[in-house]
Amino acid sequence: MNKVSVNVKPKPYEVVIGKNVFNHFPAKLKSDFPERQLFFVIDKKMYKLNSGIIDGLFSKIKNKKSKILISATEKNKTYDTLTRIHRKMMRANCGRDCLVIALGGGIIGDVTGFAAATYMRGVDYIQIPTTLLAMVDSSVGGKTGINLDTAKNIIGAFHQPRAVFCDLNFLRTLNREEIICGMGEIAKYSFLTNKTFYDYFLRNFDKIINLNNAVLNKVISESVNYKRCVVEEDEKESGLRKVLNLGHTFAHAIESVYKHKIKHGQAVVAGLAMSFYLSAELNLISENQLREYLKLLDKFRNYISLPSPDFNRLYKAMHIDKKNRLNKIRFVLLKDFGNILLDVEAEKQQVLKAMRSGSEFFV
Prior knowledge:
- The protein has 363 residues and is α/β, with parallel strands linked by helices.
- It has two domains: 2-173, Rossmann fold (3-Layer(aba) Sandwich), CATH 3.40.50.1970; 176-359, Dehydroquinate synthase-like - alpha domain (Dehydroquinate synthase-like, alpha domain, Up-down Bundle).
- It has helices spanning 25-32, 44-58, 79-91, 106-118, 132-138, 176-192, 195-203, 205-209, 213-233, 248-257, 264-281, 287-298, 311-317, 348-359, and strands at 2-6, 13-18, 38-43, 65-70, 99-104, 124-129, 143-148, 151-158, 164-167, 331-336, 339-344.
- The strands form four sheets. It has a four-stranded parallel beta sheet with strand order 4-3-5-6. A three-stranded mixed beta sheet has the order 1-2-9, with helices on one face. It has a two-stranded antiparallel ribbon with strand order 7-8.
- Helix 11 packs antiparallel against helix 12 (287-298).
- The longest helix has 21 residues, at 213-233.
- The radius of gyration is 20 Å and the shape is globular.
- The N and C termini lie far apart (40 Å).
- The relative contact order is 0.11.
């Protein structure tokens, strides 16, 4: 079991990573949140696959509790779902001292966090991520939100969890596509950190797909620890935290244009390829560097497909990105491992060329 402490004010919290850590959850509630009313927001599909484990653990929790099951799709990451959660909380007589628990992947975590941030102007919540993507990224750092039309996470708030439990056992119920999605975010962290982590990920790519516990523990812990450092320095994304958006300007546009048929982690991998080609186009990296960075992305070729991209639509969709200023697209680009450039501007033709080159990996 690994623990990563996230030291944000006013309430630091721990991210616990390993097998069977969910079993420690009742003890955590008893010691840190006694007498709290609990409200669970649970991914419906995940609950069906793990109902025995979840119900068994729930029986050990003596707090007053209620739950709502949500179908975790991007189409349900909306005001309607937010209202459903708030209404259920209100009918359960949840007060300001209630504790909300998100049990599911990134969609459940994001909408639950936003529900907690906005119910009675803010109540505490805990993240129990059940997908690899949520474990390495979205469950940590306090970003919460919902979609509006095709714009991803355009409505939201910063609201830190009180604890995060990453139990590797939940990953056993994921399909290959969901594992690849999580690996897309780990790939991002391998470029943000250093070549040592990159080389480790490259060597152990197949072990991660096959859910080797030792390797998973290491790559999740490394990713969370890097994000922890960034969030402690810049919680509200006024500067440094933008580095976490490497590849995401392209990725969010891909998700929007494909109406979320391309999942977030898959879109991130394609977005990384496009951003590296843009770095090369802007002479920020050499051809040798580009070839090195693409070695890892080449591992994803058989798992990701971008059929017939409309590059002009993708470019137009980028104008909704939250990093933009004065209606100009701002990119986060790579100069070297761990050397990230923020708020980079580029000409439209350079961006279109980078998109074409990057997309050729995944046609």
